[in-house]
């Protein structure tokens, strides 16, 4: 069935919107993989739901890819049913994103306070003589985020030194040296891990928020375009 010039323009704009959506979906997937990697390093330090969060983000990225593919096919094939279904699913997704964003922003302060408390409690285990597994997790944590102690190297009370990760001298393959130390004079990372993690999470949440806003705007354009094209195809 032939369509008007305006509908043809919408058709190709809808295709372009979905290509952009695919790219943004790739960014969401990358953030999900990043959070998943962090959850492994943080497992013994902070028993949290980061892994669940990573799964949710990855699922969202995968869903974006599926929906974008559906939109591309619906636009190119000019399938009214596919376009209508696609527009409805996008609308539901926009509502869910807004609800999720509300809860994240509402509980942001509680989440950050909980993270600081858990880090303080688990880092203190180093001074009390912890197991090799927790010591290794502390070393990995400090190497990952380039930090030392909760608020700084003074959190470590051992006169012999601080964890070697504070001096950037520890490698993950040193399983037999989980409790390896270095001199305080060699400390490279001066910032405490609580503040460093908070800043890092804030930056990534800001990046994720920017991507989410861009996604919502594109999704609204997609909904309008899909409805217009679907109406034109039904003729």
TrEMBL record:
Coiled-coil annotated spans: none
Disulfide bonds: 147-182, 148-166
GO cellular component, one term: plasma membrane
Classification via SUPFAM superfamilies: Tetraspanin
Keywords: Disulfide bond, Membrane, Transmembrane, Transmembrane helix
Pfam families: Tetraspanin
Superkingdom as given in the UniProt entry: Eukaryota
Bilayer-spanning residue ranges: 12-33, 53-76, 83-105, 204-229
Protein location: Membrane
Topology class, membrane: Multi-pass membrane protein
Protein family: Belongs to the tetraspanin (TM4SF) family.
Name of the molecule in the record: Tetraspanin
């Amino acid at each position: 069935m032939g369509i008007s010039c305006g509908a043809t323009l919408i058709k190709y704009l809808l295709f372009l919107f979905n290509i952009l959506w695919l790219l943004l979906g790739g960014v969401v997937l990358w953030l999900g993989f990043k959070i998943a990697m962090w959850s492994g390093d943080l497992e013994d330090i902070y028993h949290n739901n980061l892994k669940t969060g990573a799964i949710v983000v990855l699922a969202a990225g995968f869903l974006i890819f599926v929906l974008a593919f559906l939109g591309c096919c619906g636009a190119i094939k000019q399938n009214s049913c596919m376009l209508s279904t696609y527009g409805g699913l996008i609308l539901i997704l926009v509502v869910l994103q807004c609800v999720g964003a509300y809860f994240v922003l509402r509980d942001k302060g509680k989440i950050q306070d909980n993270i600081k408390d858990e880090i303080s409690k688990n880092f203190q285990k180093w001074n009390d003589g912890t197991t090799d597994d927790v010591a290794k997790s502390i070393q990995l944590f400090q190497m990952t985020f380039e930090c030392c102690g909760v608020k700084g190297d003074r959190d470590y009370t051992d006169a012999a030194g601080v964890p070697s990760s504070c001096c950037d001298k520890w490698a993950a393959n040193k399983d037999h040296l989980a409790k390896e130390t270095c001199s305080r004079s060699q400390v490279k990372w001066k910032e405490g891990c609580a503040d460093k993690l908070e800043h890092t999470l804030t930056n990534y949440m800001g990046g994720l928020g920017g991507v989410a806003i861009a996604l919502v705007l594109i999704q609204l354009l997609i909904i309008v375009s899909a409805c217009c094209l679907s109406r034109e195809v039904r003729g």
